[in-house]
Structures are given as C-alpha cells and as structure tokens.
Amino acid sequence: MIYTETITINGKQFDHTYSDTYFIERDGVRYSDAVDPLNSGRWYTETDIPLPERELTAEEVLDIITGGAT
After folding, report:
1. For residue 24, what are the domain limits?
2. Total structural domains within the chain
3. Residue 18: closest CA among 28, 29, 36, 4
4. Per residue, what are the HEC states of 25-70?
5. In the chain, what is the greatest distance between 2 CA atoms, to the nearest angstrom?
C-alpha cells in the first residue's frame, strides 16, 4: 500500500510518499520513497518489486545528501 504524509525538513513542509512493502515508481523510475515539494501533484504507482529488508529513512538520506548539516 502506498502512503503519503507531510513531513517537515529544516522548517519546510514536504510530501513523503512510500510503500510499506514494494518500491514505488513514477515515469519509469523506481524509488524506495520520495520527498517532493508540498502539493507538487506528483503521483506514484506501486511496483511488484519487494523492498530490501532495510531501507534508509528519509532523514538518513537527507543527512547523506547534506553531509549531516540538517
């Protein structure tokens, strides 16, 4: 099942989309989860490809991208 929630990163709100079991996909690109500008209108579909046993959290990914400067 695909879930979407609003999260706050550095004081800004974003849409966080993810599946509890499978990868999600948009325009042929596969994601474990997606963080988009609030109300961007981006839609994702659920694949039939199972997620690995453990994925990084959105916060862990952000730390990697920003070098831990969150």
Report:
1. 2-66
2. 1
3. 4
4. EECCEEECEEEEECCCCCCCEEEEEECCCCCCCHHHHHHHHHCCCC
5. 35
Mean pLDDT of 6-30: 95
Cβ distance 24 to 46 under 8 Å?
Answer: yes
d(CA 2, CA 6): 14
Residues 6+ apart with CB under 8 A from 42: 15, 17, 26, 34, 36
Q: Do 24 and 45 touch, CB atoms closer than 8 A?
A: yes
State the pLDDT at residue 69: 59
- pTM beyond 0.90: the answer is no
- Under 8 Å between Cβ of 31 and 16: no
